[in-house]
UniProtKB/TrEMBL annotation:
GO BP terms, alphabetized: glutathione metabolic process; L-phenylalanine catabolic process
GST N-terminal domain ranges (all copies): 4-84
Organism in which the protein naturally occurs: SAR86 cluster bacterium
One function term, GO molecular function aspect: glutathione transferase activity
Official protein name in the record: Glutathione S-transferase
Keyword terms: Transferase
Length: 219
């Protein structure tokens, strides 16, 4: 058994599982992946030994358990990467924390109407509430790229936790056909071209498990 284990859900559906998985992959951290199929009759039973919230993702590091995607990314950066997964400058770091937290806690209509589904394709007509949220994500992406993006193609130039938190949205925008500004579209493409994002989506598309109960809106 490895010192570091990440419990995730179906790659096809679990947007939050993708965030710390991508961080560990991008920083080449050795970890064991434990995958539990979500929304089955026995899911809670299988998650119980690992997850206090009965949700994924969960990180197990020696005797420490961390749950909730953003908290896990923070922990990995602090304890394993020496703080390297946030931008170095306080101004960029403050913005990166804010846009990561906003992605984590906001956008209920996006999460409800366009849930993560690697197999989805084609445009699903967005409601007005969803269009407003897409416009806000577009503004975050274009504004951060313009203000902070000079050292690379990611949201704050070089890859950071902010990209991990925004990568599932790029997969959803691509799958459901969001109309974005040129700057936002270029950033979405950067995320979609990331080899680990591609790997996650490819593996998600190969998964066969159906959802046996009504699909939870926050998947
Ligand atoms: N705020 C949590 C949300 C976790 C969450 O909702 N995970 C979903 C999958 S992406 C889950 O485990 N759902 C199982 C359930 O609701 O039974 C995070 O960021 O990790």
């Amino acid at each position: 058994m490895k010192d570091l284990r990440l419990v995730i859900g179906n790659k096809n559906y679990s947007s939050w599982s993708m965030c710390p998985w991508l961080l560990l992959k991008m920083y080449d951290v050795d970890f064991e992946e434990i995958q539990i199929t979500l929304y089955q009759d026995n899911t809670a039973e299988k998650l119980g030994p690992y997850s206090p919230s009965l949700k994924v993702p969960v990180l197990l590091h020696k005797e420490i358990t961390v749950w909730d995607s953003l908290a896990i990314c923070e922990y990995i950066s602090e304890e394993i990467l020496g703080g390297a997964a946030w931008p170095a400058s306080p101004k960029r770091r403050a913005s990166a924390r804010s846009t990561s937290a906003e992605m984590h806690s906001e956008f209920p209509n996006l999460k409800q109407e366009w849930p993560m589904n690697c197999k989805a394709s084609g445009r699903l007509k967005p409601s007005d509430a969803l269009l407003n949220e897409i416009a806000r994500v577009d503004a975050i992406w274009s504004c951060c790229r313009r203000k902070f993006g000079e050292n690379g193609n990611y949201l704050y130039g070089r890859f950071s936790i902010a990209d991990c938190m925004h990568a599932p949205m790029a997969a959803c925008f691509d799958a459901y056909g969001a109309e974005l500004s040129e700057d936002a579209n270029t950033y979405m493409q950067t995320l979609l071209d990331n080899p680990f994002v591609q790997k996650w989506i490819t593996l998600g598309r190969r998964e066969q498990e159906p959802l046996s109960i009504a699909y939870a809106s926050n998947a």
